[in-house]
Amino acid sequence: MRFPIELPDQPNQGIAVAALTSDDADRLFAVLDHDEVWTHIPGARPRTPAELDARLATGDGRQTTVIRRGIAVVGTSSFYVDPSDPSGVEIGSTLLTPVVWGTGLNTVVKRIMLTAAFGAGAEWVRLRTDERNHRSAAAILKVPGVTETDSRLEPHWIRPDGSTRISRMFRIGRPDVTHRS
């Protein structure tokens, strides 16, 4: 699999997913500066654009993206490569401004990222969300071919309320694109 993953140049349904740059930090911080965005995210909520930029930094098997609707920054998501199983990738750490919740944008973003991951040679893609994050799970389950696997206790991830996170895990295998003549 090729990593970093090449992202499409053209938007899909007005949604673009591109490499995150430090130039995006101020706008991204502003749209994610809502308590409800951070409810299911382990660790402390960033207090400044610089803290957010440092938290989302690409490196060590992470490729962070910025999500735009039209020209407006509306969120971020990341690809993760597990060095112990580099044949696939995880898509996660998706944070979206509440303005776009319930609009179908998350499903479009997942499809864009899945297409890019499989185009880079991934054999599988894993997704995870907090067991309490029903919006995220619903968006993941709308993606064709996704199956839910066993939940995972994440003892190293402590929620803002002090509880230990349990993640719902999902997986999609590489689509069969063989055409018969």
Note the beta-strand portion.
25-35%
Label the structural class.
alpha+beta
In CATH, the homologous superfamily goes by the name Gcn5-related N-acetyltransferase (GNAT)
Tally of individual helices: 4
Shape field = globular
Query: Within the CATH hierarchy, at the fold level, what is the topology?
Result: Aminopeptidase
How many angstroms does the end-to-end distance come to?
28 Å
List unreliable stretches of 5+ residues.
none
pLDDT averaged residue by residue = 90
Tell me the name of the CATH class. Alpha Beta
Number of strands: 8
Return the CATH architecture.
3-Layer(aba) Sandwich
How much helix is in the residues? 10-25%
Radius of gyration: 16 Å
Helix-strand topology string = EHHEEEHEHEEE
Main sheet, how many strands, which sense, barrel? 8 strands, mixed
Question: Domains counted in the coordinates: how many?
Answer: 1
Topology:
Blueprint: E1 15-19, H1 25-32, H2 49-55, E2 62-69, E3 72-80, E4 88-96, H3 105-119, E5 124-130, H4 134-141, E6 147-148, E7 152-158, E8 164-173
Parallel strand pairs: 4-5
Antiparallel strand pairs: 1-2, 2-3, 3-4, 5-8, 6-8, 7-8
Can you give a write-up of this model?
The structure is a single chain. The protein is of the alpha+beta class. It has a single domain, classed as 3-Layer(aba) Sandwich (Aminopeptidase), CATH 3.40.630.30. It is 21% helix and 31% strand. The chain contains 4 helices and 8 strands, in the order βααβββαβαβββ. The chain has helices spanning 25-32, 49-55, 105-119, 134-141, and strands spanning 15-19, 62-69, 72-80, 88-96, 124-130, 147-148, 152-158, 164-173. Strands 1, 2, 3, 4, 5, 6, 7 and 8 form an 8-stranded mixed sheet that branches. Helix 1 packs across helix 2. The longest helix has 15 residues, at 105-119. It is globular and about 45 Å long. The mean pLDDT is 90.
